[in-house]
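We were asked to recover a plausible sequence for a given structure. The inputs and outputs are reproduced exactly as logged, with field labels preserved.

PROBLEM: sequence recovery
POSITIONS: 203
GIVEN STRUCTURE:
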């Protein structure tokens, strides 16, 4: 029996063409599906830190602003002072108003970072601090200026230890003679200076 090889070759070529066509269609179809997309996007994911700041206003004067360096010297006004005191000196006082101007709830404290010195005048003058908004309340009882003041917590006008944004309070700082100042000749030609630090921390 004689087989028609030309017919067989035509059938093989036709089969190959059909396979190529099917493969091409599959590829075109796959590419077409890849062109279609759908998605959702959750953007703007971020973090931020609030502000920690306060003002310190002495008496009726303008406020000074806090800085991240809480020990910056000379940033705020002198609270109370006296030059050339005489034996009849009975005392001096002034107020300090602290206001939370930051966006974070905070706690506040005051301290005397270091004892002013052990001069006779420092021993003969005492400091008292009162909270003017609460009856008033003594925050720091009369103590000789020669004694270092430790960290002393301060409350806001409402009497809370945590101060919200905008909370404020006014405190009176009073200096008065103690220990027989008027008759102590050792105070002559001496001086005593001290620093009050107000510290703010996020609650």
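RECOVERED SEQUENCE:
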């Amino acid at each position: 029996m004689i087989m028609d090889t030309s017919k067989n070759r035509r059938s093989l070529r036709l089969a190959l063409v059909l396979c190529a066509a099917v493969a091409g269609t599959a590829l075109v179809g796959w590419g077409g599906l890849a062109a279609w997309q759908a998605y959702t996007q959750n953007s703007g994911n971020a973090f931020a830190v609030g502000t920690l700041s306060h003002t310190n206003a002495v008496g009726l004067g303008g406020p000074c602003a806090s800085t991240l360096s809480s020990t910056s010297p000379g940033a705020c006004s002198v609270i109370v002072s006296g030059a050339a005191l005489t034996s009849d000196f009975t005392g001096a006082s002034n107020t300090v108003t602290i206001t939370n101007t930051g966006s974070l709830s905070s706690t506040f404290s005051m301290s005397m970072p270091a004892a002013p010195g052990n001069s006779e005048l420092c021993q003969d003058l005492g400091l008292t601090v009162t909270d003017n908004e609460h009856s008033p309340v003594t925050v720091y009882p009369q103590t000789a200026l020669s004694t270092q003041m430790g960290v002393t917590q301060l409350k806001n006008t409402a009497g809370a230890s945590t101060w919200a944004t905008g909370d404020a309070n006014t405190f009176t700082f009073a200096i008065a003679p103690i220990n027989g100042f008027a008759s102590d000749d050792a105070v002559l030609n001496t001086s005593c200076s001290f620093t009050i630090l107000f510290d703010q921390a996020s609650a």
